[in-house]
Each structure stands twice: as structure tokens, then as C-alpha cells.
Amino acid sequence: MNRRFLQVAIVVLGLIPVGAGLAGVLAGPGMVGGSTAMVSVDSHFSYLSGLLLGIGLAYWSLVPAIERRQSPFRLLTLLVFAGGVGRLVSLVRFGVPAPPMLGGLAMELVVTPLLCLWQARIARPALARPVRTRVADGPAARPRAPGGARAATPSRRPRPAP
To answer: What is the mean pLDDT of residues 99-120?
Structure first.
């Protein structure tokens, strides 16, 4: 499975947290059939939905250079996995939630860690290649003189004979 498939998977699967986060921010607990009468519950639900939205957008921001973004990808995966552990604790304490919540649990504890392993596999060969940051004989390669000024370089044109 190559880089392009991983990028498509992240974009498509990113629709889930972005959509759910946006729906939660806009609809509050009413998004899952809850009451919006309790101001504190709505506030907390909207905050967590905003985090979900932000996580989804952050994953999308990694797509263009996904093979070189291993640290942020792992951090986002850790955050999602930690949320899944919290959801699993709730399942054990209070019972099985509605099907959309079970889907979220599967995304958090199974799909997202698998995507992280996939990203690590794609990143391994990319990290072995050096990143080109400057041209060896360009202005950035010239040594600096004392005081920070660029040292003079010899002209490339032949000088006329005296």
C-alpha cells in the first residue's frame, strides 16, 4: 500500500471526525438525541466536538507530506486513542451506547492505530532519503565572514588579461 492510498484514506476517513465535530458544535447533544436543556452539558459537548473537529482538520493538514509527518501523526493518533479508551471505560461502566458511538469506538481503538502503523511504514523509506535544503554552490553555501556578512566568492567569469 503506497503513499497515495494512505493520503486518500486519511482524507476520506477524516470526514468522520470533521463532520461529527462540526455537527456536535452546531447541534450540541441534540446531535445524538440528547437534550440541550442543560447548559453545562451542552458547553462540554460543544467543546469536545470542537476538539474532534480540530483533530480531523489536523490530520488533513498532514496529507500533502504525509510520509514526512510522523511525529504529528503519532501525536494525533495518541489523542484519538486516549479518547477511545475514555469511551471504552464509559461502555464498561454504563453499557453499550448507540451504534454511531460504537463506530467511533472502532475508529478510535482500531482504525486510527492501524492508520498510524501504515503511515510509519510509508514514512520509513522517506525518512531514509535526505531532504535537500540548499544548493551546494549557491549563496546559502557561502561561508559567513566575521560579523555575519557573506564572504566574497570568486567570480565565475574569466578575468581579462592585463
So the answer is: 94
Residue 85 CA, chain-centre distance (Å), reads 19
CA dist 18 → 35, 39, 46 (Å):
22, 23, 13
Residue 139 domain flag: no
Q: How far apart are CA 31 and CA 10, in angstroms?
A: 24
Q: Identify whether the C-beta of residue 116 lies closer than 8 Å to the C-beta of residue 73.
A: yes
Domain that holds residue 16: 3-127
pLDDT in tens, 32-81: 666 656 777 888 888 888 999 999 999 999 999 999 999 999 999 999 99
Q: Is residue 135 part of a domain?
A: no
Decide if 107 is inside a domain: yes
13 and 56 in contact (C-beta within 8 Å)? no
Query: Could you give the CA distance from residue 40 to residue 12 in angstroms, rounded to a whole number?
Result: 33
If one counts the domains in the chain, the total is 1
Backbone torsions φ then ψ of 61, nearest 5 degrees: -65, -20
Query: Can you give the pTM of this predicted structure?
Result: 0.67
Is residue 79 one of the residues assigned to a domain? yes
Scored b (16 or more CB within 10 A) or e, 84-110 reads: beebeeeeeeeeeeeeeeeebbebbbe
Q: 144 forms bridges with which residues in the sheet?
A: 150
